[in-house]
């Protein structure tokens, strides 16, 4: 695939419209040319055959009448004619463009009908999902068209994440395309403290389509098997296909689905159901929102790390709006090591780029000269300023984490209070922890050697509940000193931090 190919949509060629007057003018020109040729044509030779003379006579028999026509009439045909005004082009809806690219085979399987019935009975849900989809859908559709992939795949994030760019599942899947950490690394998605490529709109879309294309090839051009593999893993689908071959049965999805995980048996029908609804929403009494068939965002190079609150001000956006287009940014600023770019609404592109160009490199984040106090560690200083020891070592040219009291460190940090970065990991986690739930609320400070499983057992809750209350997945690694919120309906002895009653 040519990664540098222009992704702007190809506009249709304008159609020329001719009225009778235009045709008349064209005929007049042809006639005049014909008369001119007759006046200079050599007469047929006497020795020409009888058949040749007959052809000549026939071809010229009609011309004298036209050539001798009233000159005023001929002039009227070639007179200036006011062209008919062209009607303004009808606005093109993006869902219509996606609909036109559908190519997967439909199915009357009962599972598809069940999912379709659910979607059709929840129009408010669909309205919310497609409203969230608006910033991303044009880019996804353009990528699918460039690769020649079925346009139904543009609706896969409806099934995966409901187009929530911050969605995080109990299986540790993140972003619009719900990619798990291991698969993300395999697909080349960078994941660190500052940045998560699984949520980055450009990178996650590239990775998801790469993965689907690879499985499409693996399963010999069967898109439904590729989609099933996206959900359950290509290994599960490959094993199901192998068992079907051994049993001498067909290997299509509908034949092997009983051999796949139960979630996958529903997953493929769910995509086909939402595609059927988009194909003909009126048939199900649904009004889908109109989404303009034009780019929503533009990519602006930042040249280095930049504070998200500062960038939002430069682009005349709220921090929420900037994070929604750049959900791969985990913290208060972009990753110091890149990618050095931000997506902004296309209307803000030029103004933001101009404002950014006027800033010096050191003005893109706030800097403080910090004097090290006795007993302080590099990790403690980094935590205080919302950065990492690695960043402090890099900007201060430190070979290791050894520091001495009285020394000074240059520390990059947020321009505003961390609460202003409304979609950073910390802010999203805090909102999750602050939700009221039934039972008694405990706050637990993670100690060395503790695991989610051990803490859940102590507080008599499930590991999945404990992870969900703290915006985690059960498989996430706990860091020492992290504060967890726990809601228990049973008495618990000696909580580590504090407890409050909230029923």
Describe the structure.
With 503 residues, the chain is mostly helical. Helices cover 45% and strands 8% of the residues. It contains 22 helices and seven strands. The strands form three sheets. It has a three-stranded antiparallel sheet with strand order 6-5-7, with no helix packed on it. α10 crosses α11 (223-232) and α15 (308-314) packs across α16. It is globular and about 75 Å long. The model is unreliable at 1-69 and 497-503 (pLDDT under 50).
Structure keywords:
503 residues, mainly alpha, 3-stranded antiparallel beta sheet, two-stranded antiparallel sheet, 22 helices, 7 strands, 45% helix, 8% strand, globular, disordered N terminus, disordered C terminus
Largest sheet: 3 strands, antiparallel
Low-confidence stretches: 1-69, 497-503
Strand content: 5-15%
Distance between the termini: 56 Å
Total DSSP helices: 22
- The percent of residues in helical segments reads 40-55%
Name the helix and strand elements from N-terminus to C-terminus, one letter apiece.
HHHHHHHHHHHHHHEHHEHEHHEHEHHEE
Number of strands: 7
Structural class assignment: mainly alpha
Strand arrangement within the widest β-sheet reads 6-5-7
Taken from the alpha-carbon principal axes, the silhouette is: globular
Q: Return the average pLDDT rounded to an integer.
A: 83
Radius of gyration: 34 Å
């Amino acid at each position: 695939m040519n990664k540098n190919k222009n992704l702007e949509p190809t506009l249709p060629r304008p159609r020329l419209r001719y009225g009778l007057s235009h045709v008349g003018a064209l005929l007049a020109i042809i006639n005049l040319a014909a008369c001119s040729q007759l006046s200079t044509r050599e007469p047929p030779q006497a020795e020409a055959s009888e058949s040749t003379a007959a052809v000549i006579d026939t071809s010229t028999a009609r011309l004298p009448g036209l050539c001798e026509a009233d000159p005023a009439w001929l002039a009227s045909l070639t007179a200036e004619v006011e062209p008919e005004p062209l009607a303004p082009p009808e606005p093109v809806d993006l869902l219509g463009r996606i609909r036109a690219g559908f190519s997967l085979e439909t199915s009357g399987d009962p599972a598809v009908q069940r999912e379709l019935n659910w979607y059709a009975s929840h129009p408010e849900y669909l309205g919310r999902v497609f409203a969230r989809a608006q910033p991303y859908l044009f880019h996804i559709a353009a990528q699918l068209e460039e690769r020649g992939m079925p346009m139904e795949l543009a609706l896969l994030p409806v099934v995966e994440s409901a187009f929530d760019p911050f969605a995080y599942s109990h299986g540790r899947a993140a972003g619009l395309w719900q990619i798990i950490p291991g698969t993300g690394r395999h697909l080349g998605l960078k994941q660190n403290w500052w940045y998560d490529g699984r949520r980055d709109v450009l990178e996650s879309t590239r990775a998801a389509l790469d993965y689907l294309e690879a499985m499409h090839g693996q399963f010999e051009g069967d898109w439904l098997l590729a989609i099933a593999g996206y959900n359950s893993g290509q290994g599960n689908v490959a094993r199901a296909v192998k068992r079907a071959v051994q049993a001498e049965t067909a290997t299509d999805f509908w034949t092997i689905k009983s051999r796949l995980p139960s979630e996958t048996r529903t997953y493929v029908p769910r995509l086909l159901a939402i595609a059927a609804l988009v194909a003909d929403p009126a048939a199900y009494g649904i009004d889908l929102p109109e989404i303009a068939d034009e780019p929503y965002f533009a990519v602006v190079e930042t040249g280095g790390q930049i504070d998200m609150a500062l960038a939002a001000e430069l682009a005349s956006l709220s921090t929420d709006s900037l994070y929604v287009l750049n959900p791969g940014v985990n913290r208060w600023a972009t990753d110091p090591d890149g990618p050095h770019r931000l997506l902004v609404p296309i209307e803000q592109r030029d103004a933001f780029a101009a404002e950014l160009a006027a800033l010096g490199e050191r003005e893109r984040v706030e800097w403080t000269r910090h004097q090290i106090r006795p007993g302080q560690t590099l990790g403690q200083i980094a935590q205080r300023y919302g950065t990492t020891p690695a960043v402090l070592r890099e900007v201060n040219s430190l070979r290791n984490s050894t520091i001495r009291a009285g020394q000074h460190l240059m520390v990059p940090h947020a321009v505003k209070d961390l609460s202003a970065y409304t979609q950073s990991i910390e802010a999203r986690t805090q909102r999750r922890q602050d939700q009221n739930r039934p039972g008694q609320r405990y706050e637990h400070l993670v100690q060395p050697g503790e695991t989610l499983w051990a803490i859940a057992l102590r507080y008599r809750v499930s590991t999945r509940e404990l992870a969900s209350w703290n915006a985690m997945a059960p498989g996430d690694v706990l860091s020492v000193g992290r504060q967890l919120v726990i809601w228990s309906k049973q008495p618990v002895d000696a909580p580590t931090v504090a407890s409050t009653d909230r029923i």
